[in-house]
Design goal:
With 339 residues, the protein is α+β, with helices and mostly antiparallel strands. It folds into three domains: 8-75, no CATH class; 87-235, Vaccinia Virus protein VP39 (Rossmann fold, 3-Layer(aba) Sandwich), CATH 3.40.50.150; 242-333, Beta Barrel (Lipocalin), CATH 2.40.128. It has eight helices and 17 strands. The strands form two sheets. A nine-stranded antiparallel β-sheet has the order 12-11-10-9-17-16-15-14-13, with no helix packed on it. An eight-stranded mixed β-sheet has the order 1-7-8-6-5-2-3-4. Strand 3, helix 6 and strand 4 (153-157) form a beta-alpha-beta unit. The longest helix is centred in the first third of the chain and has 18 residues, at 50-67. The radius of gyration is 23 Å and the shape is elongated. The structure holds S-adenosylmethionine. S-adenosylmethionine is lined by residues 78-80, 82-85, 107, 109-111, 114-115, 130-133, 136, 159-160, 174-175. Residues 78-80, 82-85, 107, 109-111, 114-115, 130-133, 136, 159-160, 174-175 line the site of S-adenosylmethionine (SAM).
Amino acid sequence: MKNPPCNVARASAGSLKRCLRSSDNLHSGNEIGLSRRVEEILVNSGTVSLLTRMIANVCFSALLFFCFVPTTAAQELSKLPYVPTPQIVVDEMLKLAGVTAKDFVIDLGSGDGRMIITAARKFNAGGLGVDIDAKLVALSNKQAKTDGVADRAKFVEQDMFKADIGNATVVTLYVLPDFMERLRPKLWTELKPGSRVVAHDYYMSGWHADKRLDLTVPEKVTANGTDKAYLYLWIVPSKVAGGWRMDFDVDGNAQQKIVLAINQQYQVINASAENALGPMRLEKPLLRGNEISFDLTVGNTAYQFTGKISDGKMAGSAVSPTSAKPVAWRASKVPGEPK
Ligand SMILES: C[S@@+](CC[C@H](N)C(=O)[O-])C[C@H]1O[C@@H](n2cnc3c(N)ncnc32)[C@H](O)[C@@H]1O
């Protein structure tokens, strides 16, 4: 028998818990009505409907209140309610992150394990779910076994803020905005450049998403009070802020010594350059993961530079309309600057 539909505003604590924990669509991959819209590059998070976001926030916060009344204040602060991501949204999140068999996915606050189990089942990825609720962790490990993916989908009971996420290539999140803010420094410092972070409904202020996907998911109305789902993707960039000394070997003569100065706000960079003759024209600096590109005029020639960053070094090639072949360049961090 199916549970009656939940109305968050009217539900008692008991019925609310029941309906939140009901899992009609658990790992079923059911195809329900869904429409999607993708917004590429530098999302202005303010464009999301304020009303919808407020409703979702109120519902999610109401769940927090109802679900954890008997806990201590310290526990309250470190816990989130368990609200599952609909399976169709799970699928879209993993697609948005471009998950493949080469990935290791970590879900911080993994609930019933559906994100990691789906990553293992549908994309052959390895993964780890971290949740503070021992019962959900046990349920997830059991489900992974049932689904035949226990070799690569594992779950541990741990506070997400203490989890080691350094080996993740993808991190998935469905947590409240204050958790997003508190996780931001951890994601920024612990994840390797090129790793992807995908979040359901909530974003990090100050670190603009690289991509946003808007979905209409009727299934969400019951638990969330809205049929809207907003997915956000961030690609963790290399840390490039500071000064760089560049060698640019025009004609193989290493004749150009150029100093680059880069300002960085996550993946958004501004850069300037100068050589012995003074400031140079540098335009369109772009950083994506560990890849950098910019246009730089050397002498009278405008070059398009592309390169990769690794361990405090950059290297790549530059092309211009007049150069017969790409010209190699490399740069290293000015000594004393953090890598
Ligand atoms: C909104 S649910 C998301 C579940 C799952 N990621 C999904 O999308 O279906 C949040 C989960 O975070 C867990 N949680 C709350 N506080 C936590 C913490 N400090 N560390 C780890 N997990 C936590 C809860 O037990 C709950 O399962």
